[in-house]
Write a structure and sequence with these properties.
Blueprint (H helix, E strand, L loop, with lengths): L16 H35 L7 H16 L2 E5 L7 E5 L5 H9 L3 E5 L8 H7 L3 E3 L6 H13 L4 E3 L32 E10 L17 H10 L5 E6 L3 E2 L6 H22 L1
């Protein structure tokens, strides 16, 4: 569940008979694709352990292929602007929905940073572990341990994605970025040349639907929202804006880095909203 809440209750999640049939059909197709994807992912992991000492050089591309398949099946239109970073570092984005994971993974091979609780979620937790999600505890007392975990992933050549808001929203706003995790990019044991790339995600609801249609917040149940999205036709879309990467230098502070990243994401979000 998402933890952010609003004074306005979520839109109705009930499906019509036609939407229910569509959701079931799409779910069956996605499940078949997932079985094939998991087989390919396990094969890729086996090869990685032999040829790359366990580093994920191949498996993120398998995940990317499935995410593109997922978005094609449900019919969500993705408009990408800018170029995803290719150097060392992480993408940081606003968080509107569980869909963000599919959208960003379809954009570029990467691994997500998630709160430790996600590892225990039924269904989602095992899949997240299989795809290489990095789990951390959002506790200031464990900041040093978090930094060590992230530094290890970067040294292995992995590109990470995290959501500095700390929760998903109703998709109509960007919450303030929490600076805690940004400290990791400034730690002495981080590889040189680290960068942070802000990414704006702006969802556009289907015509006539509630503007918050794709948002996941306020304790909404994942299964209910998942099926509601699967049953929708025609779908809306999402604008993904990749901004210029921000270099992590010796003079940068975590608060300045968080503020700069948030400002870029806010600007891209507002621009995509104005052009919708």
């Amino acid at each position: 569940m998402s933890t952010w809440d609003s004074d306005v209750p979520p839109p109705p999640m009930a499906l019509s008979p036609a939407e229910r049939r569509r959701a079931i059909w799409r779910f069956a197709l996605l499940a078949l694709g997932l079985l094939a994807g998991m087989a390919a992912l396990l094969l890729a992991r086996g090869v990685e352990h032999i040829t790359h000492a366990g580093a994920r050089a191949l498996s993120p591309h398998v995940v990317r292929a499935y995410c593109r398949f997922f978005l094609r099946v449900i019919g969500l239109r993705v408009q990408a602007q800018g170029t995803p970073m290719r150097g060392r570092g992480a993408l940081v984005a606003n968080h509107a929905s569980w869909l963000d994971i599919f959208v960003l993974n379809a954009l570029t091979p990467a691994m997500f940073v998630a709160k430790a609780e996600v590892a225990g979620w039924p269904g989602i937790g095992p899949l997240a572990r299989l795809t290489g999600t990095v789990f951390i505890r959002r506790d200031k007392r464990e900041a040093q341990a978090q930094t060590h975990i992230l530094a290890q992933e970067f040294r292995r050549g992995h590109r990470l994605v995290f959501f500095p808001e700390g929760t998903s929203t109703d998709s109509t706003l960007v919450l303030p970025f929490k600076p805690t995790l940004f400290q990791a990019f400034l730690a002495p044991d981080m590889p040189t040349g680290m960068e942070v790339q802000p990414v704006s995600l702006r969802y556009h609801a289907p015509e006539g639907a509630d503007p918050r249609f794709y948002g996941w917040w306020g304790g909404m149940e994942f299964a209910t929202h998942f099926l509601r999205v699967l049953g929708q036709s025609p779908q809306g879309g999402v604008t993904v804006t990749c901004h210029s990467p921000i270099a992590c230098t010796a003079t940068t502070t975590r608060k300045a880095l968080a503020q700069q990243a948030e400002a870029a994401v806010q600007a891209g979000f507002a621009d995509a909203q104005a052009r919708a």
